[in-house]
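All the exercises in this workshop are built on plain-text protein records. A learned vocabulary of local backbone shapes supplies the integers on the structure line. Once this layout is familiar, the rest of the handout is easier to follow. An example says more than a description, so a record of this kind follows:
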Amino acid sequence: MGNGLCCQCCGRCRHFIFEKLGTQADGEAVLLLQDSKRKTKIWDLAGRDYDICQYGTLCKDELQTPAPLFYQDTSEVLFEQRDGHDSEEDEGICGCKNFHPPSCHSGRSSESSHTYNVFHSDLPAGITDVPGPHPSLPACVAPDLNFATQQLQSPGGTADRPVDFAKTNKGTLQNEKDASSEDFTSDYEHPSSMTLMNGDGAHEHQVEVEPKQNGHDDGEQAEDGSEQEVIVIQDTGFTVKIQVPGIETFSIQVSPQEMVQEIHQVLMDREDTCHRTCFSLQLDGNVLDNFAELKTIEGFEEGSVLKVVEEPYTVREARIHVRHIRDLLKSLDPSDAFNGVDCNSLSFLSIFTDGDLGDSGKKKKKGTELEQIDCTPPEYIVPGGKERPLCPLQPQNKDWKPLQCLKVFTMSGWNPPPGNRKMHGDLMYLYVITMEDRHVSITASTRGFYLNQSTAYTFNPKPANPSFLSHSLVELLNQVSPIFKKNFAALQRKRVQRHPFERIATPFQLYSWTAPQVEHAMDCVRAEDAYTSRLGYEEHIPGQTRDWNEELQTTRELPRKNLPERLLRERAIFKVHSDFTAAATRGAMAVIDGNVMAINPSEETKMQMFIWNNIFFSLGFDVRDHYKDFGGDSAAYVSPSNDLNGVRTYNAVDVDGLYTLGTVVVDYRGYRVTAQSIIPGILEREQEQSVIYGSIDFGKTVVSHPKYMELLEKTSRPLKILKHKVLNDKEQEVELCSSVECKGIIGNDGRHYILDLLRTFPPDLNFLPIEGEDMPEDSKKMGFPKEHRHKLCCLRQELVDAFVEHRYLLFMKLAAMQLMQQKTSLHENSVALENGVSAASSDSSAQSEPQEKSQSADKTVDSIDGEAQVKELAETVASNNETVDLKSREVIRKACQAVGSVSETSFDIRFNPDIFSPGVRFPESAQAEVQNQKQLLKEAAAFVLSCQIPCLIKDCLDHNVVPMDGTTLAEAMHQRGINVRYLGKVIEIVKKFPVPSQLDHVYKILIIEVITRSAKHIFKTYLQGVELSGLSAAISHFLNCFLSSFPNSIAHLPADELVSKKKNKKRKNRNLSSADNTSWASITPQELWKNICSEAKAYFDFSLECEHVDQAAEMYNLQKISLLREISIKVGIQTLLKEYNFDNRHKPTFTEEDILNIFPVVKHVNPKASDAFHFFQSGQAKVQQGFLKEGCELINEALNLFNNVYGAMHVEICACLRLLARLNYIMGDYTEALSNQQKAVLMSERILSTEHPSTIQEYMHLALYCFANNQLSIALNLLYRARYLMLLVFGEGHPEMALLDSNIGLVLHGVMEYDLSLRFLENALTINSKYHSAKSLKVALSHHLVARVYETKGEFRSALQHEKEGYTIYKNQLGEQHEKTKESSEYLKYLTQQAVALQRTMNEIYKNGSSANIMPLKFTAPSMASVLDQLNIINGILFIPLSQKDLENLKAEVQRRQQLQEPIKEADNQETEITETETSEAAKTSVATNDIAETHNSA
């Protein structure tokens, strides 16, 4: 068999894979029914009567996730192609001639048709393929608007900023920004007049369509040509009966477009038929072809009866059956998730929702009986608690202690059957010990499974009496063991009740940093996987390892002319990349563990290279002094991650004919391993002979090649790389379009590969001091340039993009200003050019000029006209139009010159990546250009300090970015192009801030990052000196020195470490660790902290000045548990889940037994679903303009496309789900909101981790939707869980904690727990006052919420006091006439009346005693509706009535702002979102806003 990739739409094996590999399909179709590599069934979903529509869309409101269009070939559940079906017949998504509309019918409804709209004209500027209509969605991939969705959280860990979904989620799909080099922009961010993408404006699939003006094309949509296309999809599903031996006939619903094998899969997953794997389906006695579409089968119609017929086994089928039964037995066992294998990961949501929320709503009372709800939070959650327990992080699910069905289930030692038994039909032998302690030997034969007479020590394969011959192993065991029968049935019942998202495999492995002590059970499949030749076996292609390079490149060569082709291609690329990443990770671990033989075994250990499973592995050390001039080992260590960034970037530009290597960087046990696919033929020749472009010696000998120049020129515009000339050692000029280190090699397959992309981006001069070069003032003021430990510091791609965008705005302003001045006077024009332009690098001068020169009344209009003119003029000049007069040409020329454009006729900024490279020389003729480039690089370096870091801090201050831990902080920095090496500088600026307490949370996270990253650097070298047998002792000793208060931590050396060192020296060459394997044991806490402080100073330029952990914790208010989490995640440690006493001064915190595992930390490429992303952005833009319904449909379509490319689980699918849930909620569909948000939470837990800041946000949203659905106790449980996670990750006092506490306080108020409610609300008030200043509207709202609780308690004096505070803020901020001020004033009057009435009553009682005539006082318990209203307000959702006129005014305002190109301002300035409304007056429209002030002003 070859490496088969199969089309899910027609089930045919695609021959392009086989043709490339020189092999042919051997009659086995390679469609994976059960993705057994992950040991989790992709469609593990039957039992809920799911229907499967074409392409695997499982349709029920619980889940509709398409099974991936592509599956990798496997030996596990491969069905033989029957009847010689010709695999070239169809041309669906993979070229099928017939496109058939999928009929995705839900299990409950069967509508006659679905209508889908494709809003091409709404795609943001710069995103579309080319102006004109969108290629209509072929029916086979048309989105299902009810498609179940999955969502994630924006990276800063911020709550949804409801006013502006587009802004909120701007960062969402760039969580993995590193993985994508494309910086998509959308309408609201940059108007269509400027795409600001410097070349990325062209659709990535149509490289030849280049935008004008360096990417700043007009981007205007051909509105008339892009009518919404409507695709009507007929839904003609029907019901058939299935007759299975031994059980009653049952019905399932099918679609004519499905294949027969999809019915197979449903049966293998149904509770009552799941134990069958080897059967065929027959209709009227005829066996059906597994890969035939149902509509092609004669006589197959409504009411047809399909008969399940048991087929004889082969060895392969028997193995598949055993593996499937083992998977069913393990289906509830979490050990794979804790151990980080087979793409399993953890989810705890169901523990807090008590199962599936969809079911719980139906079976539970609607929360009306409040007294039944236990609202008391655990003590460690209540504000002010100091305890931070670890155990609640991973609560034990009652289902996890699974019903044990067998004691032992394993392969027998008598395998394989001898020849004489093979001829009796024996295939293999199994050995089982039942729960009743009965030892049985089982024969798997062609007819099924039966008991034989063998024992552990004697071989007697004859059938036992009785033999219980059964076609299924489960049927046999049911007869042998009553406990098995009972427990297996119960297990399958529980399995099918779990939410599908708890079971589906994730695309990339997630590792848990803590785990409970899991019992190590006997497992025949696991043992076989570990010790058989897993090279081929693991990937399920028997007898052959995968040719990774061929697969990676072939998928890139797939056609991409239309949407179905692009979907198929992107799905193939994504699938191969995730498989390659998994294989490379496993290989890298095997290399470091010493299980792979080097290809150069005689060399020194650090110089060894390895090949395993067709992947090349090298270590991150400077061998042969290759990086001598760049920083030695430090440069060699950072080089692979720079190279990976280069690979990501070139992959994202996606130029036809230019190939990169599959690249994965793995950090494991202190070593960095680079895994790469192998260029065909590269191992057969010397590198000098292979390289036909670039340099192998950093610029001494340089060669170029016309084909490479042609290919690389296509990338130069989007990547802003300047074509330039360098001198080689023979003083000849050589032209390049990349850095000199970039090498071009033509493989034996004829493909043009580029590798060594470590200098794709220009150097960062702030960390590269060069003699004789003077840095800009901004850099010098901040103490730059600084010497760094290596010379490979590059600017991030995001920084380059932001810098170019900033320059483009400057270019437009300068040119517009000059054109406006031309109108008034020629003299003024020339003076302004002389003076204004020379100050181009300074924004302020450029911005202040037009303000001085133009009249304030017409300023806005003029500037719009001016910039429109500049745009038109720039395009005309760029096209060499002769009609442009000289003065106008001069305007453009001078503006270009001022901003550093490489062209004089159009804006075009590019960088020469070889500037300041040691050893690279430029010809004399290029000196002027080189000087300009040097200046540009200096300005880009200064731009980080003068613009990007202040922007980050301002965003934190405005709470547009709310980091909660190191990961979210690093993401926020990376999105703005700030490298982590600037951490010290960011801390310095935060400390100088006028009100530093408003940035306390950021300061704390910054300090934790500096400490843990410095500790990581030390840990890396520390671990390199440790033998495998000493790992747990070494790691626990390091953690004790790092986190424990125990002053003299002593390492416990394993006994075998103390053997004389002669032995070690002999083995030196065979092991990566150094000869002295015990040096790690001598480190002390004082020494470690001293090293951490010096590392922080050397690397981050920050003075820590802490001698031990307690001092650091006290000085910076740090939690040791948070430090443990951060260091564990960064270096891959897994610790035991238990309560650690960090402060015990008498014994160390950690023992060897507390270190459970060490995992790899993996960096890899993340292929993107481009079309889905465009739909998602269009949906966001629609929502932002107020068209919620259309936005919702577009996001549903995006979701469907994401599912097609990524499968069911992905971080971007998550973003769709969260946004959809929010839209459902705003549009009043609370149930749908709950369903979508539940999926979002599950997916966030599974993909990002159970305590990731995004997961915390998802829990908060889900709690709100639960409350709206009257599931009060669940809502409280979810909020308590979110609070616990936030305490663990950060601690008290985070700005998001105020929102969380307000939510908890309001819900407790609603269930009349007033004292508890007050504790949370007063804590929220304290936090809001700290971070938003005492005059903020958030603080006013907090005062009001506290006042309401005091009122219901009858404490009117306190209520009055708080409401007065709120009233004062409203009056000062909004004025006396504002609606909010009036509301507060009314409430004050009411409270005063109540207080007076109470006082009168008290006086009456004092005066008249028991005979007093007491008026009854009103103590109103809050209604659920009023509590929900308040919850909506604090979560940023307000429902306010708007008349038609208000709507029109608001829409006009939105358009005006977009025209003015005003960037979206901070949270309190965000635009409101409105549901599109066609009713006349007073339509009730949902408006989401982030700050009350803006909402009321707009209203």
Summary: Residues 630 and 791 are 5 Å apart (CA to CA).
